[in-house]
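Quick one - inputs below.
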Amino acid sequence: MPVRKASVSAKDVAARAGVSRAAVSRTFTPGASVSEETRSKVIAAAEALGYQVNHLARGLISQKTGIVAVVGADLATPYRSELLRALTERLQAVGRVAILINTDRSDRSVDMALQQAIRYRAEAAIVLSGMPDKSISDLCHRNGLRLVLINRDDAHSRSIQIRLNDADAARLALTSFLRAGCRTLAVATSNAGTPSLVAREEGFLAEAHRRGLSVTCERFGPTGYESGLALGERLLVLPDRPDAIFCTTDLIACGVMDAARHRFSLSIPDDLSVIGFDDIPQSSWDSYQLTTFRQPIGEIASSAVDWLAEDEGDGETRVIRLAAPMSWRKSVRGSNAR
Amino acid sequence: MPVRKASVSAKDVAARAGVSRAAVSRTFTPGASVSEETRSKVIAAAEALGYQVNHLARGLISQKTGIVAVVGADLATPYRSELLRALTERLQAVGRVAILINTDRSDRSVDMALQQAIRYRAEAAIVLSGMPDKSISDLCHRNGLRLVLINRDDAHSRSIQIRLNDADAARLALTSFLRAGCRTLAVATSNAGTPSLVAREEGFLAEAHRRGLSVTCERFGPTGYESGLALGERLLVLPDRPDAIFCTTDLIACGVMDAARHRFSLSIPDDLSVIGFDDIPQSSWDSYQLTTFRQPIGEIASSAVDWLAEDEGDGETRVIRLAAPMSWRKSVRGSNAR
DNA sequence: AAGAACATTGCACACGTGTGCAAAATAAAT
DNA sequence: ATTTATTTTGCACACGTGTGCAATGTTCTT
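Output:
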């Protein structure tokens, strides 16, 4: 029961060009042998008919679809949308096409997303959030689907895991506060408990502990601006009000800054220094000028795509650690001189 | 030359379950006839082997792939990323999978993107930016690919075009300024010249003209925050400095507001009223509290997806016009009482 | 019990493509 | 001119699936 118009096939082009169907196929297969005379006849016929190779059929026979699944939740947040943009651009540059699977709906969605990726015989999947169950990861391997895990905790066998040096950044945040003369330190983070947020929080706390400093740590809600407002309100009413707050994401930082200014009439950075993480576009806006750590989005995208685009590796697990360089703006005391 | 592990096929499942390959197929085809005994044998075998139906093969034989292409540039801007999130969610809810094609690289990319969509035999394409050439639009039709054009100027035959009432919103922006007592009006927009921006600008100017009012219109750069800063700087140094600026997007408005406050020390809305368009998340942040028009993203997404998910229509062109309701915040004089 | 109606099953074909291989054609070497 | 080497071509098969159809099995009606 075909419900659609039949597309032009290689058979139609062959008839029009007066050659065999195999000659048509060879004309559109890189590296295949075809004479210039046949080639131009086929190209002319294909253009006249509007022929486009059917990649479903090609994928079926060649076992290479060119499809890469990108799997994630919260796709509209500044960091994730920018990463998605960079990934699609890079994938297209190496001849791949991205299937986007939104996992907003549940944690189990990563497993379901990967099963969907297998149904379309995706060559690889890039997981931006959530973590696949081991049985699904094995299923991916059995189906030749390669896994890229971005900012996930566990490495799965035969996959690549791209992590940031969150702890290094957190340490640098702490030392930057100390150098700026801040003494009452706090961490503001969400209840999401995702690997990156945990690493940043723990890195900050561990470095403070190593230096014999006490830090107030406040967690609240999902990882967004509204939680930042609430976290600012909770931290800034403390009797021992912090003069420095490390926020585990920039969205939280923007909320903290707005709470400080608009609800507590504090001046940043005179009364309160703030450091975030991500370097989203809004961090550079005049209303924020937030000092933060820049997500190396270009490097994440190229690391991910270069790995999956190379020939089948030897199956070992790889972990890539990238630095998140500091972006100095005006939210830390004494940072104007940088 | 297969370069990947052969996935489990229906043939493998049939052998394990002791039934025919057709029984396996029928078990995984909704509405097909299969006994409960056979079904449970097949299901058990499929689960043991990790079988996932090959949708490439299914698409080839059934001429229905479930694939919908989403085509657009500037995917990381707040409005577009939110629309993308809503579209993927809605597409998944009706059993479709989204192929995301990024057209940042050139105008001709929409044509190339649609050709790529045809190669994967996508059932439909949702175009978020750019406009396909007529010959490509025809090619889509010939291949049974249905077109959804969002905020594009021209309707193509046998497609659906979803537009906002930009001009109505612009008129309401003007009357809101007048009601707030503003007298020196300006429009701030980009050089992008996209259909929505032009409609908003022209709607504002036409209504002003109808009322015998003069408006300064300034255009600059791409459609982003930085252009808003620059536009604010250009408009606010005028000898006849505007006391009301209609910005054709919220990103531009945030830039204008930051320029007014941080570079001209103006108070909003006392010295300057600002209205934007889109209602991006940042518009509700304490630092902005921008009065704006809300993009009906949920309705756009459901209009688009409901149309393409329904059975083949009669081929007529449809235009859907949606209202962009006003979101009152604090950037217009006298708007606190709302 | 027999006949009619309905459900289930396996076979074989088709969807559109890439490719191994033998045959044919062309180019290069002697 | 003949032989050898290389290129090109068409045929037929395979990839994995859904389905028309004939054959078989089961249920319902008389």
